[in-house]
Amino acid sequence: MGYKNEAEIKQALGIESWRNLSKDKMIRFVAMMPDMGTEVALKIVEQFPVFKDFAIDAVDAMEGAHESTLSANNQSQEHVHRAFQEIREILKAELSNGDLSWKQKKYLIEQIQETGRLEFQKDSENKHFLDGMSRKMMLGAGVVVALGVAFVGGRVMAESKDSPESSLEA
Predict the structure, then answer these.
(1) Does residue 30 contact residue 54 with C-beta atoms inside 8 Å?
(2) Which segments cross the bilayer (predicted)?
(3) What is the C-alpha to C-alpha distance for residues 114 and 43, in angstroms, rounded to an integer?
């Protein structure tokens, strides 16, 4: 575990108090959770007055960041595909020139094939990237849900120990 106490986590986030936890820092906090000890994470979560609001804000912020990244990625992919298409158009126009030798035609055909291979490779890289992004999003949301369950479960257990009924059962 990377973070052993609250002070280290506050320092890493650049805050003095949990009240200073902005939405941006909330995303960082959620991303740091796998590197925290369970007890440390639970102690921190207990300090939030309304954990449900925190969890909703964290998931909303993660979703917004995820959508922004996907949008930028989509624009980048469109640009790459358009560029490859333009290159192929230029190569095809050159290929239609009747004054080319067999060697020159062969070279142009190989270049057209190469752009296809490169575009396929770029598409595969993009799918790998999207898969990684989805996994990170799911992990972050899972951490928030798990902490929510632990937080609610801990409160229920604490309340049941304090209730008069629990002393009768003993």
Answers:
(1) no
(2) 137-158
(3) 56
Across-strand partners of 36?
3
Whether the Cβ atoms of residue 55 and residue 148 lie closer than 8 Å to each other = yes
What Å distances lie between residue 105 and 78, 83, 114, 117, CA to CA?
A: 29, 22, 14, 19
Tokens of 97: 């020139």
- Domain ranges for the chain, please list them: 6-159
Residue whose structure tokens are 């209730």 = 163
Alpha helices in 1-50 (DSSP H): 6-13, 23-32, 38-46
Other Cβ atoms less than 10 A from the Cβ of 113: the count is 12
